[in-house]
Amino acid sequence: MTAGHGAPGTSALGPPLGEPIAVTPKGDSWDRVRDDLATLGSAIVHARLSDLETHLPSGDGLRALLGRDWTRYLDLTHADVRHRYAASRMLLKYAAGAVLDGDPDELELAYGPTGRPYLRGCDQIDISLSHTDDLLLVGLTTRGLIGVDAERADRDMYDSGLGRHICTPYELVLLAGMAPEERNQGLVRLWTLKEAYSKAIGQGMQFRFTEFGFGPDGRPVRVQRPDGTEGTGDEWLFRTVVLDGGHDSGYFVSAAVYDAGFGPLWDTHITTMLDQDCVEAVTEALDRVDTGEHPAGDQGGAMWSPS
Amino acid sequence: MGIASLEGFLTLVCDELGLDCVGAEAASADLADLPGWDSLNLLRLVVLLEEHGRPVPVHRLLQARTLQEIYTFAKE
């Protein structure tokens, strides 16, 4: 479902973003996720915390799943926060494992200087994570960069005076021109778009949300300057959908994808993530060792000895 | 109760943002470890501090890791 009445964001470089796909760790939706990634270059998956908790391993199993996040997990003192932290990492690793055809426990989640997550050694896949309430959301793309965000559609924002801390002058005018009953959801939509975009570029709220904006729904969505003029082109594509939340309002879910223009990546299997030239060089060197031949430039094999 | 004291500040945050953040432990807890905390709450806190005559810019609050630190910024 597209938020409002318009078409999703489109990109001249590739196909649009697909619908978020509901998944569970042992469910049968993962083929759709792989299909979306193969055909659209991106996939968005979502799950309910309550559904994932029953699949969470404990003890050594959880430690293996969390990997380097285990220490951070132990630092969290509140049970609810811990569960959400573990469940979100599990969803992310299962999603990545599904599209990479790898063991989720073997995938290593790492973080950049700004806290942006990435899969260590698998840089052809970019990832993003979001959660709110009972909803967990993961975005995956082979096109370049991705950011995702979710928020309850009925979260009180407009009447709380948050608009002037979130919106550009142009967006404030647009919101003021909407029917009063539509303004809050209009602001929630803008918030999720800005969160998704700022996550994709690794800035978070350090990039002031009043310094960039988005136009109304119902037309291709682009990043805009504060005065409403276009700030980016077709290399960015956006989509906002409303997911059923099990309550009246549902959730706004937005995704931002930067298309680096590399074209589709047909094979995302984890073993093909290795650079082919590097693999050939290592293979050649190992063959030389097997045959007793010293690698070129090596004087007596010291290069291969522990120092 | 206003934000003249840390206790008053925590009570205000607890009431207005609907967070479980009463007590000294909540004041020193990492914000990410507070149940219900998210980036939108940070903005709501900006508005709340403005309303109480203690404006703190968003970029300043982004540097805070705990409610205690936010309270310190608000008192400066």
Automatic annotation (TrEMBL), chain A:
The keyword Transferase applies. Pfam families: ACPS. This is 4'-phosphopantetheinyl transferase superfamily protein. It comes from Streptomyces carpinensis. Residues 1-28 are annotated as: Disordered. One of its GO terms (molecular function) is transferase activity. It comes from the Bacteria. Gene3D superfamilies: 4'-phosphopantetheinyl transferase domain. PANTHER family: L-AMINOADIPATE-SEMIALDEHYDE DEHYDROGENASE-PHOSPHOPANTETHEINYL TRANSFERASE (PTHR12215:SF10), PHOSPHOPANTETHEINE TRANSFERASE (PTHR12215). The keyword Cell membrane does not apply. Belongs to the P-Pant transferase superfamily. Gsp/Sfp/HetI/AcpT family. Residues 146-222 form the 4'-phosphopantetheinyl transferase domain. Keywords: Transferase.
Automatic annotation (TrEMBL), chain B:
It holds the Pfam family PP-binding. InterPro entries: ACP-like_sf, PP-bd_ACP. Gene3D superfamilies: ACP-like. Residues 3-76 form the Carrier domain. This is Phosphopantetheine-binding protein. It comes from Streptomyces carpinensis.
